[in-house]
Specification:
Blueprint: E1 2-8, H1 15-27, E2 32-38, H2 41-48, H3 56-64, E3 71-74, H4 81-84, H5 86-91, E4 95-98, H6 106-116, E5 122-125, H7 137-164
Parallel strand pairs: 1-2, 1-4, 2-3, 4-5
């Protein structure tokens, strides 16, 4: 069996995430096992500059419920990304998959794995899925804000018209 491990925060789970996970599993072939490592709230805050909308326990349950995911686990907490790599030593993947927006240097990652004596067949960064504005959490948040502002402005104008009558 080929073990594929994918990493991410997976906040505001959306179709782009699902496509990423499907692609990740496909990389391992028909007998692939896909394990997803979910960023801890503290790690997500450090990387993204803000806390995730959904707490880690809920993100974990959501990922475990996906058909394409064989298992999901929480990553390790640490200020140093190299310390968080211990999960790779524990899971012993054949393939590591990163999303297009993960700020990890592939060469630095591979060098660190070699230093630790961890053998991984491939480390892959997937491309962004599609051109939709709904394939990234930040785009979805922007859309929600824009709709909220538009609706608030429209409701305010409607309220003014009613008061004029």
């Amino acid at each position: 069996m080929v073990r594929v491990v994918a990493f991410g925060t997976f906040d505001l789970l959306h179709y782009g995430h699902v496509k990423m996970l499907e692609k990740a599993k496909e990389l391992g072939g028909e007998s692939a096992e896909l394990i997803v490592v979910i960023s801890r709230d503290t790690s997500a805050q450090k990387v993204k500059g803000h806390p995730p909308i959904f707490p880690e326990d809920q993100r974990l349950k959501l990922l475990k419920s996906l058909k394409v995911v064989d298992d999901a686990v929480l990553g390790y907490e640490s200020d140093d990304w190299k310390d968080r790599l211990k999960i790779i030593e524990d899971l012993k993947p054949n393939i590591i998959v990163l999303g297009y927006d993960q700020p990890i240097d592939l060469n630095a990652l591979q060098d660190e794995l070699i230093k630790r004596g961890v053998k991984v067949e491939k480390v892959v960064r997937l491309e962004k899925y599609g051109e939709s504005s709904f394939n990234s959490s930040s785009s979805i948040i922007d859309q929600i804000i824009q709709k909220f502002i538009h609706n608030s402005t429209a409701n305010g104008k409607n309220k003014e018209k009613k008061e004029e009558m």
